[in-house]
Write a sequence for this structure.
């Protein structure tokens, strides 16, 4: 518990580490969502065009 | 060598190999961050002046370093795109901007949180390092706003590349601000004259975090660029073949 308390600076230290983890997770998530969205949009458009041909 | 570069710059080739390189960067990057975070939080001794608050350095420094590196990647890629008209370069520049903005925000936020117990203030408007880092964030916002304001991709690429190149001056100011002017921010620690001004037990986790964050950033950038390439090439033959391939290769 002493290590977690960070000598009284726990709110500052853990907030910074938590924020960093959050930023990494958000970026990873955004990349996946964006890729799926772009891929699906192109897939729908191309398959619609193929259907017309 | 040149042949390899030309092949790498080809959008279909890049699209295929990016996930492989991305995984090679991501896994060791995460391992280094896990080690660096554990060692930095629990194994490194407390600082004799700042106590355990100094441990914020293990996320603040990598974020600040990446905020500048991402900008330099964006500017250099934009410059390459302008001069050599390499399509992939503009995709890299466009993809580096949001990542750089996130790491700049993180550097500012963690710096501000660190400043409260150490300097007694969340923010100091007269501090050159803080202000130049804030201006860096505005450069990122300006770059992304400019890109989205111009519908023609080629024109957006050119205009945003010029803006990115102009902003390099600010990156130089961010880097040297603690040497040129009086600042609340501490001076150079790792690159200090006469070697790093840190105990090796503190320095090792910091280097692991910096290197780990760089690898993870590389992985994120590769995958962001891959999506950007797919979007830009959406009307090309190779994307059509990719989508219609029977095995479905996303």
């Amino acid at each position: 518990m002493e290590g977690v308390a960070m000598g009284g600076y726990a709110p500052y230290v853990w907030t910074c580490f938590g924020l960093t983890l959050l930023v990494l997770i958000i970026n990873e998530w955004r990349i996946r969502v964006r890729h799926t969205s772009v891929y699906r949009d192109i897939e729908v458009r191309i398959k619609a065009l193929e259907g017309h041909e | 060598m040149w042949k390899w570069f030309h092949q790498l710059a080809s959008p279909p080739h890049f699209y295929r190999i990016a996930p492989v390189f991305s995984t090679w960067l991501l896994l060791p990057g995460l391992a280094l961050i896990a080690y660096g975070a554990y060692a930095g939080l629990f194994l490194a001794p407390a600082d004799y002046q700042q106590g355990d608050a100094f441990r914020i350095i293990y996320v603040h420094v990598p974020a600040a370093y990446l905020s500048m590196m991402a900008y330099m990647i964006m500017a250099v890629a934009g410059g390459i795109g302008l001069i050599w008209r390499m399509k992939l370069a503009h995709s890299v520049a466009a993809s580096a901007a949001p990542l750089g903005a996130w790491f700049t925000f993180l550097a500012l936020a963690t710096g501000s949180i660190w400043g409260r117990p150490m300097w007694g203030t969340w923010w100091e408007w007269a501090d050159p390092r803080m202000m130049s880092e804030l201006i860096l964030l505005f450069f990122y916002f300006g770059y992304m706003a400019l890109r989205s304001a111009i519908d023609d991709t080629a024109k957006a690429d050119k205009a945003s590349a010029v803006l990115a190149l102009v902003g390099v001056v600010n990156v130089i100011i961010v880097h040297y601000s603690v040497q040129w002017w009086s600042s609340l921010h501490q001076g150079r620690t790792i690159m200090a004259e006469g070697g790093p001004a840190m105990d090796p037990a503190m320095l090792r986790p910091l280097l692991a975090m910096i290197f780990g964050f760089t690898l993870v950033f590389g992985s994120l950038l590769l995958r962001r660029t891959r999506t950007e390439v797919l979007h830009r090439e959406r009307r090309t033959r190779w994307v059509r073949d990719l989508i219609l391939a029977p095995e479905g290769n996303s």
User: Anything to note?
Assistant: Chain A touches chain B through 30 residues (CB under 8 Å).
